[in-house]
């Protein structure tokens, strides 16, 4: 076949350890033979981040702002052990944190559903995507232990010095208090990212808070979502045949358990933290979870939800065979290529992304998979493949589709 041509470069962010090994095999086996890949390459591997004083991470994020679509490999977030292991000049910040701060986005995580890896919740037939607001609330809270009787208040001092005071509690004995905040601009970005992503993926959007109890704080989230929806999105949602649905968080949790999936669940920061772990484990595995950062001005960064799979990498370095699951990383590529195809109007590229995903799913459903899936599958007569042969098996399935 003739290779598919691209017009705009994809921002390619290479990474670390086992996922860096998979990255190369994926490109060699599943991308280069089919696509005349146009990418602007940034090496976010820890050694190169260290050499460039982490400038490469910033450059890759700015490139994403310029071109609109990036695909990212998992990267090491340095800790004390990594300082020695890689002889680092500094404990560089998490690349994901840096990229998120520059793009100002919302992270969407969705399970990849295949036959034979069944969700624990038997009525879940379609993926449930979690959209987590990644700013503020208890993650930027301040707290105090109250040693004994006394009065705790919230005080807001305006720039002109005028004060507004709200009583928290008249303590008669020891206790605790917590103050937290959010910013309307950040909530607006969160809302727009969610509405855009719902339109993009043609899925209904759910949002839930505890606005009956939190009449100002949570109610502000509810109001901002509703105002933006009514002013900017209602007609587009109607045209796409999808809905925006608001309910109380406890009602949402109950409905999620009884649903068949197939929607986006927007969550405040804490709810998203807790619920995404519930959703991913109930659907099967972190290695079957896609993750995309969507910025309010329409930039997209695709990645796997898991890390660099360090334990497997050390086995690989010792020359031992590994069976590391590359599905989430393959989906990062297919997601990014599809989005590039959409933005540049290249139907063959979008079709290739669909076929790559279909070939990945078919390979697993045909009983060829990595060890992590073999351990949890309900399929019988499964063949466990090593890291490289699993990707090669997908290539065979993919070639048969052309
Ligand atoms: P991890 O890489 O997600 O791996 C944790 C364990 O989960 C693995 O040891 C493996 O279990 C299993 N696993 C994860 N992905 C798998 C896959 N694709 N195939 C098969 N098994 C898989 O988390 P970690 O070991 O805690 O972190 C390693 C490094 O990744 C850290 O330096 C961390 O900073 C970084 N990290 C990066 C990102 C990111 O870039 N987005 C996210 C999280 C962590 P078994 O060992 O039992 O096989
Ligand atoms: Mg968590």
Strand and helix map with partners:
Layout (H helix, E strand, L loop, with lengths): L3 E2 L4 E5 L2 H15 L3 E2 L2 E5 L2 H6 L3 H13 L1 E4 L7 H6 L9 H9 L2 E6 L16 E5 L4 E10 L3 E8 L5 E9 L3 E7 L2 H18 L2 E6 L7 H24 L3 E5 H10 L4 E5 L1 H15 L5 E6 L5 E5 L5 H8 L9 H18 L2 H19 L2 E2 L1 H4 L8 E2 L2 H13 L3
Parallel strand pairs: 1-3, 2-4, 2-5, 5-16, 7-14, 12-13, 12-14, 17-18
Antiparallel strand pairs: 6-7, 6-15, 8-11, 9-10, 15-16
Bound molecules: NADP nicotinamide-adenine-dinucleotide phosphate (NAP) and magnesium ion (MG).
NADP nicotinamide-adenine-dinucleotide phosphate binds next to helix 10.
Summarize the structure.
The chain has 402 residues and is an alpha/beta fold. Helix content is 44%, strand content 23%. The protein is globular, with a radius of gyration of 23 Å.
């Amino acid at each position: 076949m003739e290779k598919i041509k691209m017009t705009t470069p994809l921002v390619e962010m290479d990474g670390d350890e086992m996922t860096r090994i998979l990255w190369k095999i994926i490109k060699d086996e599943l991308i280069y033979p089919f696509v005349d890949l146009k990418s602007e390459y940034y090496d976010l591997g820890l050694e190169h981040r260290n050499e460039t004083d982490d400038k490469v991470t910033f450059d890759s994020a700015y490139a994403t702002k310029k071109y609109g679509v990036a695909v990212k490999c998992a990267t090491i977030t340095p800790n004390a052990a990594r300082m020695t292991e890689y002889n680092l000049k500094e404990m560089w910040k998490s690349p994901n944190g840096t990229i998120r701060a520059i793009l100002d986005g919302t992270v969407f995580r969705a399970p990849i559903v295949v036959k034979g890896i069944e969700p624990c919740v038997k009525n879940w037939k379609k993926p449930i995507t979690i959209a987590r607001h990644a700013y503020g609330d208890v993650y930027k809270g301040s707290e105090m232990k109250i040693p004994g009787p006394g009065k705790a208040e919230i005080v807001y001092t305006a720039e002109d010095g005028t004060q507004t005071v709200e009583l928290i509690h008249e303590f008669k004995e020891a206790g605790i208090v917590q103050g937290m905040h959010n910013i309307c601009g950040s909530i607006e970005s969160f809302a727009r990212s969610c509405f855009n992503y719902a339109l993009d993926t043609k899925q209904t959007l759910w949002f839930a808070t505890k606005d009956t109890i939190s009449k100002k704080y949570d109610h502000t989230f509810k109001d901002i979502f509703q105002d933006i929806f009514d002013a900017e999105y209602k007609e587009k949602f109607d045209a796409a045949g999808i809905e925006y649905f608001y309910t109380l968080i406890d009602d949402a949790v109950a409905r999620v358990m009884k649903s068949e999936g197939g929607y986006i669940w927007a969550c405040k920061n804490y709810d998203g933290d807790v619920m995404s772990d519930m959703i991913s484990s109930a659907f099967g595995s972190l290695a079957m979870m896609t993750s995309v950062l969507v910025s309010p001005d329409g930039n997209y960064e695709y990645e796997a939800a898991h890390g660099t799979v360090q334990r497997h990498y050390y086995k690989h370095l010792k020359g031992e065979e590994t069976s590391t699951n590359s599905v989430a990383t393959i989906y990062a590529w297919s997601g990014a290529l599809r989005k590039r195809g959409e933005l540049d109007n290249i139907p063959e590229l979008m079709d290739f992304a669909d076929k790559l995903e279909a070939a990945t799913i078919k390979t697993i459903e045909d009983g060829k998979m990595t060890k992590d899936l073999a351990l949890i599958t309900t399929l019988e007569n499964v063949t466990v493949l090593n890291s490289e042969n699993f990707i090669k098996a997908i290539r065979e399935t993919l070639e048969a589709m052309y």
